[in-house]
Design brief:
By secondary structure, the protein is an alpha+beta fold. It is built from eleven helices and 15 strands.
Length: 399
């Protein structure tokens, strides 16, 4: 599934119509959630049927396309099923009990309620919300009109701080031909450097939030001084939201580029299976961990690994920094000690490189860790790791 995104260019009246459609989506989702809370054994089909009841009872709800109403009910159904799944799997902590939505930002159409022009530069929404015809502004290299209409499964309007966007979800297969390099690496993510691999290469931490923090504080102070419910407060709030959006985009762009470069140049990548939710409970490091964006980076690493059909293996993080990568001796050290000095074999390495070597060894061993990607099945990833390990063992004595 590919997602093409364009920015929408329209009038203030059209933007107001989009906002109204988004509010209707929120209303339907919350009403479906209330139906589930009040009743018992409410299925997904019951929620979709309830949309027709709401359309008859509330005239403003009937103006939204019928499939868009069903997509709103699907959102409530997804939240309910996720809650049950977490309970069934005994997920630690909160199970994610469905909550009423107060700040919905999107409306989703299926295969009706919209019409794309032949040139691929305009889209018209034909339901009763009155959105009308909008111009699509996007990357000149992507052409949505080249796909058959039947392959466009979803059209979603998303409201962000800097405007409105239209997303096209296209059912297609993306094929990437991976060029084998014969290299397997382990990576250790950190705060000093964003990551260090088993070969000693380091990528510096960009610290997008830290660099923008002074500007964000200034915009936050400006917002706090404005009178509530005033026009100036709305302007200040929009400026602050735009700056946060810029930092978010910088972080994701950096993560995507680094993940793509790693996957393109290696045949196997191992990383630590970090519990980031638990790590951010540390008040002194929480801001820096969030700023580094390890989670979004590992997500893109897994996605690109699936496209390139190479194994991305997660290993337990226990003692990867303390054990010596050469002889296995445990060398206790605090976070402030950045150099690994083994008293058993005398090897001296950067702390993060030593951890990356241990991570790679665990992945190649095949007894610990799990595959982050399974393009041809999870067993196939394990076979690839075992083959790489056997090849590595033949020349390991020279290290």
């Amino acid at each position: 599934m590919l997602v093409y995104e364009y920015k929408l260019d329209g009038s203030k009246k059209q933007y107001a119509a989009i906002d109204e459609a988004i509010r209707v989506v929120q209303f339907i989702r919350n009403k479906c959630l209330r139906l589930w809370m009040d009743g018992k054994h409410v299925s997904k089909n019951d929620l979709q049927t309830y949309c027709a009841v709401l359309a008859k009872e509330y005239p403003f709800a009937s103006r939204l396309n019928s499939q868009a109403r069903q997509a709103s009910a699907d959102r409530a159904s997804f939240a309910i099923s996720r809650f049950y799944e977490n309970c069934k799997n005994n997920k630690p902590g909160k199970k994610g009990y469905p909550q009423f939505q107060h700040n919905n930002r999107s409306v989703e159409y299926k295969q009706t309620g919209w019409k794309l022009d032949d040139d691929g530069q305009h889209i018209t929404f034909t339901d009763g919300c009155g959105i009308g015809r909008l111009r699509l502004i996007g990357n000149k290299k992507q052409h949505i009109e080249t796909f058959p209409i039947k392959d466009i499964k979803r059209v979603r309007i998303v409201r962000r701080a800097d405007g409105y966007y239209c997303q096209f979800c296209v059912k297609t297969e993306r094929k990437v031909e991976h060029v084998p390099s014969g290299k397997e690496i382990g990576i250790d993510v950190g705060l000093g450097s964003f990551l260090t691999d088993s070969e000693g290469n380091m990528i510096s931490n960009p610290r997008h939030y830290r660099k923008a923090e002074s500007k964000l504080k200034r915009l936050q102070r400006r917002l706090s001084r404005k009178q509530k419910k005033s026009a100036n407060r709305k302007k200040a709030r929009k400026q602050l939201a735009k700056q946060h959006l810029k930092v978010q985009r910088q972080r994701e762009d950096f993560a995507r580029k680094v993940a793509n470069a790693l996957v393109s140049s290696n045949d196997l990548i191992a990383y630590e299976d970090l519990q980031i939710k638990n790590m951010v409970r540390n008040r002194k490091l929480a801001k820096s961990i969030h700023d580094a964006g390890w989670g979004i980076f590992l997500q893109w690493l897994t996605r690109y690994g699936f496209l390139h059909a190479i194994p991305i293996i997660a290993v337990p993080p226990h003692y990867t920094s303390q054990k010596c990568s050469d002889c296995g001796t445990v060398v206790q050290k605090s976070l402030s000690i950045r150099t690994h000095i083994c008293y058993g074999c005398g090897v001296v390495l950067d702390r993060d490189q030593n951890a990356a070597l241990n991570i790679l060894a665990l992945a190649l061993n095949g007894t610990e860790g799990h595959s982050g990607t399974s393009p041809t099945g999870q067993n196939a990833s394990g076979d690839l790791a075992s083959t790489a390990f056997s090849k590595r063992r033949s020349g390991k004595s020279g290290r």
